[in-house]
Amino acid sequence: MNDIDAWVWWLIGAAALGIPLVVTAMPEFGMLAVGAGAAAIAAGLGTGVVVQVLVFAVVSTALIAVVRPIAARHRSQRPQLVSGVDALKGKQAVVLERVDGSGGRIKLAGEVWSARSLDTGRAFDVGQEVDVVEIEGATAIVM
């Protein structure tokens, strides 16, 4: 055991921290693994155990303090590329059959959709352009 250099132990520690990173997908383990890698570099340069532990602690803490808030901010942002029914909200459509509070038909994104008016007292005649406000199941809510 004493024949193995300290930098090898730090690399083993980094690999050991990489395993739960892959299994649990918790990025904190990766940041700790990077800290262990930095400590391995410090050990390879011939520094003492105290300096190696300090390098591990400082690098790991700095990564967690800086990277976690950035990752959390990116995780909470909505994707910029919308697809499915979310992509249809706000689009314009053409009325194919009179649309009122009880129903009708529109042509939306090249397809025929059932539709109903957002304002139940308002009706749209054939050929009028309407805006899609919401999609409820297979029905477009228009105004």
Automatic annotation (TrEMBL):
GO cellular component: plasma membrane
Membrane topology qualifier: Multi-pass membrane protein
Record InterPro entries: Membrane_assoc_protease, NA-bd_OB-fold, NfeD-like_C
Protein's cellular compartments: Membrane
Signal peptide feature range: none
Domain of life: Bacteria
Transmembrane keyword on record: yes
Keywords: Membrane, Transmembrane, Transmembrane helix
Transmembrane segments: none
Domain NfeD-like C-terminal, first and last residues per copy: 85-142
Pfam families: NfeD (PF01957)
Protein name per the record: NfeD-like C-terminal domain-containing protein
Species whose genome carries this gene: Streptomyces lincolnensis
Organism classification: Bacteria, Bacillati, Actinomycetota, Actinomycetes, Kitasatosporales
